[in-house]
Amino acid sequence: MKKTKMTVGLSSILALVLVLAGCKGSVEDQSEAAISDPMPSSTEVPWQSHGNDWGEQRFSELKSINLDNVNELGLAWYFDMYTDRGVEATPLMVDGMLYVTSAWSMVYALDARTGELVWFYDPKVPREFLAKGCCDAVNRGVAYIDGQVIASTYDGRLVSLNAKTGAVQWDVQTTDREQSYTISGAPRIAGDKVIIGNGGAELGVRGYVTAYYVKDGTQAWRFYTVPGNPKDGFESKAMEMAAETWTGEWWKWGGGGTAWDSFVYDPMLNLVYLGVGNGSPWNQKLRSPGGGDNLFLASIVAVDADSGEYVWHYQTAPGDTWDYTATQHMILADLDWKGSLRKVIMQAPKNGFFYVLDRETGELLSAEPYSATTWATHVDMETGRPVETETARVFDGKNVTVPSNAGAHNWPAMSYNRETGLVYIPTLQLGIQFKEPTHARDMLPAQGYWNQGFDRTNYVVPQLPNIDEIIDSSVTGQLLAWDPILGQPRWTGNLGRVTGGGVLSTAGNLVFQGHHDQFRALNAETGELLWSNAVHTAAMAPPITYELDGEQYIAAAVGFGGGLGAEGGSAAHGWDISTNLSRVLVYKLGGDVVAPAPDTVKEPIPKPPPLTGTPDQIQLGQEIYQRHCSVCHGDGLRTGGLSPDLKRSKAGVHDIWQQIVRGGLLQSAGMVSFAQFVTEEEAEAVRQYVLSVTNIAYEQQQASADQP
Length: 708
Ligand code: CA
Hints:
By secondary structure, this protein is α+β, with helices and mostly antiparallel strands.
C-alpha cells in the first residue's frame, strides 16, 4: 500500500508544480487515477471515484461535448432500475462498466456502452428500516478500488463486491441494528481504507465515522463525532475536549452529529475530512441546556487517515439548534489566494455561508453568505465564529428562520470548474418557524423515533409573515455560480420552486444539472440554458461524464424522492408527482433512443367513510398526526407519493386502523407500531383528522369533476 501512496504523492506533486507553472490540465486528474488504477486504457476516461478526482471537484477535462454541439445530445441508452423511489446516486464508470445504485441500496453493473445489465446485487434491506431514517431509502453510490465495488446499505452494512461478477467478498455491519442508524452516503476510498458514516440524528443516535481495510473489511479506526456519557470514559482526547462544550445529560438524547454524506481524502496530506451533522435533538435547550458549542456538531473535522486521530476542526454553527448540518459536499482545490497558492477545502453547508478553509491547518480564509440568513449577520474573521442576530434563537412559532432546516444547500453535490474558477452550488431558499415544544412527551429523549425537540404541530404549511422581505419566495431554487476567491456569485440561474439536483461541470464549458423533471446543460460562463431533456421523474442525483472508444457520454440517474423532494417538502412547495420511476439515462452526441414516459394516471380519491369526530377530537388528531405521522405521510396529508397518501386509503384501512397504528400490522412495509407514543383514543383522533382532510379533498375532487 505504501507504494501506491508514494505514486499518488509524486504525481500530485507533479500536478502541483504544473499548476504553479500555469499549466492547468489533466495531470491533476491523472494523479487521482493513480490511487487505484495505475493504467486506465487509452480509449477510456473513467469516472472512478465519487467526486471524480481526489478533490471531489466533479469536474471533467472532457470536451467533445461542448458549447457548439451540446444541442445535438440525445439518449444513447437507458435502464430502468427495480424501484420507484428516490435516486441520489453518483454512478461510477470503470473498465467499460457503469456502477449505479437505486433505493434500498441495490447495486446495478451495466455495460457502459449499451446499458445491458451485467450483474445485480440486492442487499435485501428489511423494509422496516424505512422508519429508522429521515429521508427515504436513498443511496448515493458505490466506491471502486482494484476490481472491488464497495457498497453501503441502508441497514448499516458495507459490502465488498467483485467488480466483474458482483460476488460478495466481504460484508460487515457498521452499526447497531437495534438503534436508528441508516446509511445513505457513498463510501469513500482513502488509501487502503474505505470510509463510511451514518445517519439518524433525527432519531436519537450518536454519530461516528469508521474506516475499514478494503482488503478484508476489518476495522481500522472509528471517530466519534460527539461525546458519549463521561462516566463510560472517553474514546479519545478529542472526545474529552468535545465533552467540555456540552452540558446536561446529552448522551440520553443521543447527541447526533451523524456524518451521513460528505467525506473527502487528501492523499498528499494524508487527511480525511469529515462533514458532521446536526444535534439530536435539534433543539439545543433540550440537548445541552446550559448551551455550549457542542463539538463536533455542524463541523468539518480533519482526521489522520491512518489512525483516525483528530487533527483540526472548524465549526460552522456553534451550538447548532437549527439542523444546520455541515454534511454537505466538500471540495479540495489548490487556489491562487491573494498572491499565494493555498491548499483549500470549500463547503456551502446548510447555514447559508460559503467557507474557504486552509485544509492543512483549518485556518478560515473566507466565509461569505451565499444565501439570505436571518440567524447570523456575518462570520467574524478574527474569531472564526458566526455573529448571531438577536432573533437567531427565538422559537415562538412566529419568528421566521432562513435558511430553513432544509438548508440553503443540501446533499446535491456542487462542482468546481478549474477553467472558469467557479463553484456551482444548487441552492435553496426556504424559511421555517420553529416552535418550542409544549407537550411533555416532546421534551423527553425518545430514541428510535422522530424527535427534533420542536413542536411539529406548527409545521402545517406555514404561512410565513414577511417572507418576501427576506427572500423571493416564488424562486426558492437557484443554481449559483460562485466565485470562491471574491466570495460572491458570478451568475444566478433561477430554477423556480424547490432545489435543483447535483452538478457536473466540464472543460466543454458546460454545467449539467437536473431540475424537476428536466435534465439540462447550461453555459458554464453565463448560465444560459443550452439544452434540456424531459426525464419523466425528478432528476436529483449529480450526473457524471466518461469517454469510451473516443466517444464522450453523460450519465445521470433519476428518480423522485429523498428528504427534500419527498413527502411534505415536495407537495408543500409545489411539487406533487403522480407517478415515479428509477432510471439511468446515458446521453451522447447524436443519440436517438427514446425513453418512454410512465403511465401518469393518478388514482382518484375513493369515497371515504363519513366523518364522525368532534372538533376537539379532530384538533387533537391533527396535533398527534403532525408530531408522529407527518414526517412520512406529509405535512397536512400532502404526501410526495413515496409513503401512502392517506387520502387514498381504501375504506378497509379504517376498519383495521388500530392494528396498523398501534399493532404494527404493516411493519414489514415500513409502518412500525406507535403504541409507545399513541393511545388508542389518540389513534382514533388521528383517524378522525385524516377523515376530515380526506372528506374535504374528496368533495373538491367531485366538484371539479362536475365542472364542464
Ligand atoms: Ca438533519
